[in-house]
Design goal:
By secondary structure, this protein is of the alpha/beta class. The chain has helices spanning about 10-20, 40-50, 70-80, 100-110, 125-130, 145-155, 185-190, 245-265, 270-280, 290-305; strands spanning about 5, 30-35, 55-60, 90-95, 115-120, 135-140, 160, 180-185, 195-200, 220-225, 230-235. α1 (about 10-20) links the parallel β1 (about 5) and β2 (about 30-35).
Amino acid sequence: MYYPFLRGKQFELLALRDFVEFNSGSFHVFPIIEPVKETFNSMKLAIQKMKEKSLIFGLVLNPQVGDIINRTDLIMRELQNELSDQTCWCPVFFVKDNFSVIAQKITDYNFQNVIIFYEGGDVQSQEFNTFFSLTQISKVIITDSRTVKRKLLSLNKELILMSDSFNQQAKNKDYLHVPEESFSEDFAFYQQEGFVGFSDYTTLPKSYIDGGLLPFAVAIHLTFKKNEEQIFIGHFVSNTNDDRTNVQGKFGEATEKAITFWDKQQLPRTKAIEKLSEYAKNAQYPGLGMVKKISILNHLELINSTIS
């Protein structure tokens, strides 16, 4: 199972809604969403769509970035109707040295099937053992640490492998020097390595960035299956990158590169790629947010079909 980690921003949630709509009834994806905004309208729409299509999801209840850091009560209050049926979703908590705080929240809200995103600490401590002995904790997301893995398996926890797969460059035009590169092999090996699932930040960097200036270059990041054991990512970058003018033209240049590459390599077209091709054919510019949405949607579709 694939557990993509998404921030609860507009275009991440739009990508998730489109994924649910396009792949109804054939899900091998369990999205985990970290709320980052004080407004919950986009989140409510995404949750409603996932519930309609019976896609179970995880929701981080102690966000570590954005506008509502650690505001569990606010999230539960604002989404009380959407989260009333816990068979449709799973609570997710970041844990490092806050074992007692999270244990109390699990008890106070009577949470079951809790997923823990473990960020490191002393696995030999009594606090670690007591916390991860809680029967309410079903799965733990970890990076590839043998010590942590061995300890949690001894406590009968199911493990999800987290990888930070996106190799972020300082500027969009820097991707011109890396037109394609290896992205992930986790989908091929996670089960034989003792994990029940794998996770990443889709085609986004782990670091959280809210907003920004118009770019000098437009870059479209699209994953594709290179062979049976490797997924690569292509970086399709505009050519006229000397100033911030004519973003629409830059988008057209990047889009043309992407579609040309897809057709030359005879890669299967996801719904996201079809939409990108439509933009190219009609010389449309949907905005930079939609570029991010297409990139995420393509990755969700790719992984879902790959592990089906």
